[in-house]
Specification:
Elements (H helix, E strand, L loop, with lengths): L1 E7 L5 E7 L9 E5 L12 H12 L3 E4 L16 H18 L6 E6 L1 H12 L5 E5 L7 H12 L2 H9 L1 H13 L20 H13 L3 E7 L12 H5 L9 E6 L9 H18 L13
Parallel strand pairs: 3-4, 3-5, 5-6, 6-7, 7-8
Antiparallel strand pairs: 1-2, 2-4
Length: about 290
């Protein structure tokens, strides 16, 4: 494995670390690890660093870089919106890797906001061969509400809260059903509120990505997405037309929190991504038997 710092972009203002396999990675797609919110390129609990090295050991070059204004990347000097600049910088990262002869196909990965940007990049650029979306867009279903409120019905503590302040309890439930919730499943209201596009818009984007034969791997955490996602089959219930799709893999990591705090949680995530990557992304002799969706 080889690691080196790189700068790229129109103004050479974006900074990153390129991790490459020791042997030839020719013909393999390159992974882009996208910032999780305002965290710089090491990722939450530094798990982007370990993930990059593990994927490089599997044969994939990996670029983990900072968007403008984060980490060591300089602020932008133009009038692009945050969403526009992140898309533009993802494309600049791919252009840099292509011009450097590293890869001509790409796999964006990210957590939370990084997953949202990875999906946006996959939708906008045909060079994307796959994407890993960790705690990305999620939509509540009837099954979600059955599980979410079923546990309250069986909880003596919940009934005591209702008896003590019925109006407050009702307002809290109404707010949750309206769709706004603090990121990371924080019921206390601390942090930012995640706003997702309409379900139909998300589905249209996913269909367009899959129509190009790209591979998609969705990971949802049980401890980090409780305000949006709480059971293994929720993705299929959300998007029935994608249930069982041969290029869609979904994993519900019930015991993991949003930032994969414990090393055991990180190891489980790395193992899943590694197996998926070896089965769906690698070309030639490096490829292994495909994992079941």
């Amino acid at each position: 494995m080889k690691e080196r710092p790189v700068t790229f972009g129109a103004m050479k203002s974006l900074s990153g670390i390129l991790t490459e396999p020791m042997g030839s990675g020719a013909g393999q797609p390159a992974v882009l690890l996208l910032n999780a919110g305002l965290l710089h390129r090491v990722g939450p609990n530094r798990f982007y660093v370990t993930l990059a090295r593990q994927l490089a050991a599997a044969g994939l070059p990996v670029l983990r870089f900072d968007y403008s204004g984060l980490g060591e990347s300089e602020p932008r000097r133009d009038e692009l919106s945050l969403e526009q600049s992140m898309l533009a910088e993802g494309i600049e990262a791919m252009d840099f890797l292509a011009a450097s002869g590293v890869a001509d196909r790409f796999v964006p990965m990210g957590l939370c906001a990084g997953a949202e940007n990875a999906q946006r990049l996959a939708h906008e650029d045909a060079r994307v061969a796959g994407a890993v979306l960790i705690d990305g867009y999620a939509y509540r279903t009837n099954g979600y509400y059955l599980r979410q409120y079923g546990r309250h019905v069986l909880s003596a503590r919940s009934w005591r809260r209702v008896a003590a302040s019925p109006l407050s309890w009702w307002k809290a439930r109404a707010g949750a059903q309206a769709g706004g919730a603090p990121a990371g499943g924080n019921p206390g209201g601390v942090g930012f509120v995640r706003e997702f596009p309409p379900r139909e818009t998300c589905l249209a984007e996913l269909r367009a990505i899959l129509a190009r034969d790209a591979e998609l791997f969705f990971v949802f955490t049980g401890g980090g997405m409780t305000e949006f996602y709480n059971y293994a089959g929720q993705f299929g219930d959300t998007f029935p037309t994608l249930r069982g799709h041969p290029r869609v893999r979904v994993e519900f990591m019930n015991i993991a929190d949003h930032t994969f705090t414990l090393r055991s949680q990180q190891d489980a995530l790395f193992a899943s991504i590694d197996a998926w990557a070896r089965a769906t992304l690698l070309v030639g002799e490096a490829r292994v038997a495909r994992v079941a969706p």
